[in-house]
Structure formats: C-alpha cells, structure tokens
Amino acid sequence: MIVIREFDPSKDCIAVEDVERRCEVGPSGKLCLFTDLLGDPICRVRNSPAFLMLVAATADQNEIVGMIRGCIKTVTCGQKLSRSAIPNSDHQPPKHLPVYTKLAYILGLRVSPAHRRMGIGIKLVKKMEEWFRESGAEYSYIATEKDNVASVNLFTEKCEYSKFRTPAILVNPVFAHPVPLSKRVTILPLSRSDAEILYRRRFSTTEFFPRDIDAVLNNPLTLGTFLAIPRGTYTPHTWPGSDRFLVDPPQSWAVLSVWNCNDVFRLQVRGVSRLKRSFARTTRVLDKAFPWLRLPSVPELFSPFGLHFMYGLGGEGPDAERMLKALCGYAHNLAKEKGCGVVATEVSAGERLRTAIPHWKMLSCEEDLWCIKRLGEDFSDGSVGDWTKSPPGMSIFVDPREF
C-alpha cells in the first residue's frame, strides 16, 4: 500500500535525493542532463506565491518511492478592451487590459524505477490537483519533452490534459572570451521600479505574464533588468524613468531580465565519450590562450555547472532584433563573470525576436511541450472563454521561478 503525504524536510531529504538519483539514469550511449538540487528538494518551487511537495511512501513509511511538486500563481490568460476605451477617439487605438486566471504548475514528478506501472504517478497527480482546486486554481499545466512518451501519455491519456503550447528552450554556452557588444547600442540597467513599470505597461497582456511581476523583479535571484536603446538616446545620467520613456520611446528598443539559477540548482551533462571531452577541453585551452580569435569554445559541462536564465525578453521597432542580440551578449558576459556554464531562455514558437537569440542547437530544445487542464467548470472565464481551447499568441512570458 502506498501513502501520499506532504514532504517533511526534517526527515525526507535523504530519501528524496535517493529517488532522484535512481530516476536519473539516462539511456546508454546518449547525452543526458542531470540536476543537482543542492540539498533543497523544493528549491524550484519555493519562490512561487504558493507551493507544495508531496511524496509517495510505503505504508510503513520506511521507503519513499515517488514525489511531485506544484505551485500556484495568477497569470494573464487573455485580454479585453477597457470599458473606458472609445475606438478611434483622437485617433488613439483602444486600450487592452489583461484577463487574469489562477494557474497551477506541476513539476518534478518522479517515481522510483522499481515501483513504476503501479499507478503511483497518477495518485500523485490527482492528490496535487486536489490541493490546486482547494486553493482556487482554475487551470493546471505541465512542461515536458515532446519525446518523453511516458510523461506525455500519463498526462494526456490518463490525467485528461491536452497539448497546449510548444515553446523553445534556447541554450547558449558561456565562452572563455567575452562577447563583443555593438557600439551602436546603449545598454541601461533599470531600477526595479522602472522595470516593473515597463513590464506592466508593455507586457501585461502577454500570455502567462505573472500578476506579481514585482515579486519576481524584487527577488534576490533577479540580477537585474536591462534596456537596449540606440546609442545617443539616453545615458545613465539622462535616463528620465520608464514613465517618460514610454510616452516617447525611440523607434527601436529591447529589454530582458536575468535570473540566477546558479544559486538554486546545478546541471551536469553525462554520457559523453572521452573523445568529445578531449575536444571540448582543447577548445577551452585555445580560447583562453588566444581570446582575440573568439573561438566557439565548449565550456566544462561534464562537471556540475550553473546557469543564468533570461526572462521578460521583448522589444519594439524595426531594429529590435539587433537590440535584443546585444542584450543577450551582455547577459552572456554577466554569466561569464559569475562563473556560469550556460545562459538559457524559453520563448514561444511564434516569437518574432527568436532569431536574435544566440543558441547552440545541440544544447537547446527546439520544441518543448506544455500541456494544460481545466480544473473545474464552476468558474467564469469572462471574455477569454476556455483557455485550453485558445489559439497561441505570438509571445509568452516564462516565469523564471518555474524554470
């Protein structure tokens, strides 16, 4: 008999880590990515507004055989016209306002290999969904690799989730040399208050935008928000603040924020042959010896390494791609200073600025899969309708607290 109960950090940490290790057995001869949670099993959800971790234990409590994590927040699921908006008044376009919903997220579902095909995964999901409903969540979603057949089947066939969005995870290595930045672009660090104003004014109607963006920006793991503008527009001394900037912005600009995953968890690539390890080591040696050549060196990814996550990417204007590329270079150099192995981000399949984001295909996931489920029928979706049936937008706002 299996008992589903809440995770107890005072006695479950070692057993949970043991299950994690047993689950992280990659296929023979293939590259695999392993995660070290640095002794904190709830590190990937603890920064969310509400979170819970459940474990599956044998009836005598002597063995933990599975676990699941979940968190809840309020996000944008659509948009509506402002009641005060008068189309064509003074030639101003009608104002759109975000429509919010309470959204739950499932991650870190694990079942010990010796206890699979016993319905434990389904029990964990159902129990977590009970907490979601009790907490007022209207939707639940999960992210998984589209090629993870077992995971996709569990959620779509047995738990009634539907395939929803297919964003791309773009990962770029941190080289031994700094990335040169365009001299035609000025990069300004924004204060947290200016960053919040900019995001709420320009991105609050973006799908999955967190209503508590202020909590994300004020979290110590956010290393900063950076704005790229044409050189000569503003300097740190002449910056007027986001309010005045948005009244008359330059023709093109871009913005992004950086989240420090390095202090939350570490990653490690395993299953690499000695030949490939030697090649990677050689590229690093050459890059350090001849930095002016700017060789594309492979970082040390075969020992635990940290990453920085770029979120809130966006921009406007015909030159926004060049602006965003400069920001990605700036983020790369920041990660180099902090000793990280990679920088990463996640964007929607239709994101128009996607081509400006440097990444290595071998490290990236070109088509991640998000599945969603409506948790109840006793609430109103207002002007959105059923979000699970809505078409994808051009952009999504990926919350770094859930990466």
From TrEMBL:
GO terms for molecular function: acyltransferase activity, transferring groups other than amino-acyl groups. This is N-acetyltransferase domain-containing protein. Coiled coil: none annotated. One of its GO terms (biological process) is auxin-activated signaling pathway. Residues 2-186 form the N-acetyltransferase domain. Belongs to the acetyltransferase family. It comes from the Eukaryota. The lineage of its organism: Eukaryota, Viridiplantae, Streptophyta, Embryophyta, Tracheophyta. SUPFAM superfamilies: Acyl-CoA N-acyltransferases (Nat). PROSITE patterns: GNAT (PS51186). Keywords: Acyltransferase, Transferase.
